[in-house]
Amino acid sequence: MSERMRKIVANDLVAVITGAAKGIGAALAREFAIRGMRLALLDQDGEALASTRPVDVLTVVGDVTDDTVLLRLRDETLTRFGDVGLLVNNVGVLSKAGPWASPDEWDRTLNVNFRAVLSAQHLFVPHMIAAKRPSAVVNLGSKEGITTPPGHAAYSVAKAAVKVLTEQLAHELLVSTGGTVSAHLLVPGYTWTPMNFHGKDGPHDRKPEAAWTAEQVVDYFLQRIFNEDFYILCPDNEVTSEMDTRRIQWSVDDMIHNRPALSRWNPAWAQKFTQWMREA
Question: Which residues of the chain have pLDDT under 50?
Answer without folding.
Answer: 200-204
